[in-house]
Task: structure prediction
Amino acid sequence: MKEESRTRTGRKPKSDPADYKYIFRLNAQENARFERLFADADARDKTLFIKKAIFGGEIKVVKIDKATMDYYIRLTDFHKQFQAIGNNYNQVVRAVKTNFSEKRAMSLLYKLEKMTLELTLLTKKIIALTQEYEKKWLQK
Result:
């Protein structure tokens, strides 16, 4: 049998194998800092994390603030409620016009207008508080 005609089995050899190995040691403080950076970067492989750190690759560190997430969720819920009010506003005006006399409809629409102004003032306060919160606590 010719050895050249045999098919080769197993893994194909890499064109550029990583043959060079470096070993370094860390003290307890350095190791704690390394582990913290590794966990914050949400990396899966320590080797790739170290290569990115050495060769200037971008290391992303994402910190999630629970209070900010809670604020964002509540603000989103408020926005949904505000949209629901806007969707129902025209339906209410149409129903008031068709179901009540002109005098009664005008009085109800006046009350609706007063409540809308209160809602507008409340919305402006919420926007001001949100902008203040963003300036003070959110990093950009």
Q: What stands out?
A: The chain has four helices and no strands. The chain has two domains: 21-63, 66-137.
